[in-house]
């Protein structure tokens, strides 16, 4: 419709208990212990954990710094939001010493935004607390202390549901300063102009079928409401792309028919718009859509766009040509693929990224849950090849 301003459960079986009598939602919108108390995990990750990724190194020299490593945020089976970091020797952390928040709701979505400006690297984690309020925790390389972020004062209350869509997204000049080493940006030749306005957008479901969009501009203290997106699946995730060249930002939502829609907005007020390319107005890119996604799919974008299929719970990737009203999914070999791994839990949270590697190439990384206590990482060369799986070791105790 568009916005207006202002235990193991990979596949249900005949022995699976029926949804708990206390469940108030359709089973397709439930995950883990919300389906039945026997599915609450007692080791590893929370069954239905949110997953978020951020680069927090921003080193200019790949060989001497830690650029290419990432930090993963997840919900531990204790309910705490914790983090682990990818080091040269593998994944480390995830213990009670690496806690970001202790008041998250079960199966909260997680979103991470990291950037660097004026030599300072900053990262923000967004989640939903036990009172259904949107919460922000922030940190930087100058303090290394987690503090509450400014969105907390807005008292934004999310939909009271087990699966709730929420996503924060950086917008502006390629994550900040030019010394950030990264994988190739889509549709980028390296010399393009960037929107001078930088900050974050956040979308979150307020009902089963609507989202609010809020925004924060770098240097300001307050978040401001920007739009209401009505008649969209509030249980599914949000995707966004707003850090590339030019002045056009994109958001992807799942409609009530479980089809992913792609919307764009060109903020360049120095040009004159027309009927096919309006300025400063969200517009549906009608040449692109992804049908039959899982009703509670997460969405993710970094170089490729990812969603969970309803038919087999597999995670599929799509190469998008971003061109405002002419945005399309590219055809041809390698432009659409299935992550070669186990099916995800129905409605699993997922998170994706692409990072430089030490051999000078780039890799795609996809994270999701397959059995309810795991966080599984799937990795592939940027341009193709086989997927390799790593099940990240998560501390089993609450310590």
Characterization of the model:
With 399 residues, this protein is mostly beta strands. Helix content is 0%, strand content 39%. The chain contains no helices and 28 strands. It has a five-stranded antiparallel beta sheet with strand order 1-14-13-12-11, with no helix packed on it. Strands 2, 3, 4, 5 and 6 form a five-stranded antiparallel beta sheet that branches. A four-stranded antiparallel beta sheet has the order 7-8-9-10, with no helix packed on it. The model is unreliable at 7-23, 58-68, 174-183 and 188-195 (pLDDT under 50). It comes from Hortaea werneckii (Black yeast). Residues 12-23 have a biased composition (Low complexity). Residues 1-23 are annotated as: Disordered. This is Fucose-specific lectin.
Q: Layout of helices and strands, plus pairs?
A:
Blueprint: E1 3-5, E2 51-54, E3 71-75, E4 81-87, E5 90-93, E6 99-101, E7 111-117, E8 120-128, E9 134-140, E10 147-148, E11 166-171, E12 199-207, E13 210-217, E14 224-230, E15 239-241, E16 248-254, E17 260-266, E18 283-290, E19 299-302, E20 304-308, E21 315-318, E22 320-321, E23 328-329, E24 336-338, E25 350-356, E26 362-368, E27 376-381, E28 384-391
Antiparallel strand pairs: 1-14, 2-3, 3-4, 4-5, 4-6, 7-8, 8-9, 9-10, 11-12, 12-13, 13-14, 15-16, 16-17, 17-18, 19-20, 20-21, 21-24, 22-23, 25-26, 26-27, 27-28
């Amino acid at each position: 419709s568009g916005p207006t301003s202002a235990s193991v459960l990979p596949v249900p079986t005949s022995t699976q208990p029926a949804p708990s009598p206390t469940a108030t939602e359709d089973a397709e919108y439930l995950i883990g212990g919300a389906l039945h108390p026997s599915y609450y995990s007692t080791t590893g990750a929370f069954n239905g954990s949110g997953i978020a990724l951020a680069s927090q190194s921003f080193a200019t020299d790949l060989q001497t710094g830690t650029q290419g490593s990432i930090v993963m945020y997840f919900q531990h089976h204790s309910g705490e939001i914790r983090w682990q970091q990818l080091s040269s020797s593998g994944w480390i952390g995830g213990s009670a010493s690496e806690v970001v928040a202790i008041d998250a709701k079960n199966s909260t979505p997680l979103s991470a935004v990291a950037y660097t400006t004026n030599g300072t690297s900053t990262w923000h984690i967004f989640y939903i607390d036990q009172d259904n309020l949107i919460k922000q925790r922030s940190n930087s390389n100058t303090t290394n202390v987690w503090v509450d972020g400014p969105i907390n004062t807005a008292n934004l209350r999310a939909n009271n549901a087990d699966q709730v869509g929420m996503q924060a997204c950086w917008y502006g000049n390629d994550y900040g300063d030019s010394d950030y080493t990264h994988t190739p940006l889509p549709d980028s030749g390296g010399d393009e102009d960037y929107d001078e306005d930088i900050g974050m957008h956040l979308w979150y479901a307020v009902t089963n079928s609507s989202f609010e969009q809020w925004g924060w501009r770098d240097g300001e203290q307050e978040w401001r409401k920007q739009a209401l997106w009505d008649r969209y699946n509030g249980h599914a995730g949000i995707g966004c792309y707003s850090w590339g060249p030019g002045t056009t930002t994109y958001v992807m939502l799942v409609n009530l028919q479980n089809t992913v829609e792609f919307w764009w907005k060109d903020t360049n007020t120095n040009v004159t718009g027309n009927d096919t390319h309006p300025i400063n107005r969200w517009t549906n890119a009608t040449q692109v859509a992804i049908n039959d996604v899982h009703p509670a799919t997460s969405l993710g974008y970094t170089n490729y766009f990812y969603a969970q299929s309803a038919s087999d719970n597999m995670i599929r990737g799509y190469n998008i040509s971003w061109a405002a009203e002419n945005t399309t999914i590219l055809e041809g070999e390698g432009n659409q693929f299935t992550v070669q791994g186990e099916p995800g839990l129905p409605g699993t949270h997922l998170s994706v990224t692409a990072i430089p590697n030490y051999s000078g190439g780039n890799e795609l990384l996809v994270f999701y849950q397959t059995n309810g206590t795991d966080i599984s990482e799937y990795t592939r060369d940027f341009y193709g090849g086989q997927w390799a799986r790593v099940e990240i070791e998560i501390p089993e105790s609450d310590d």
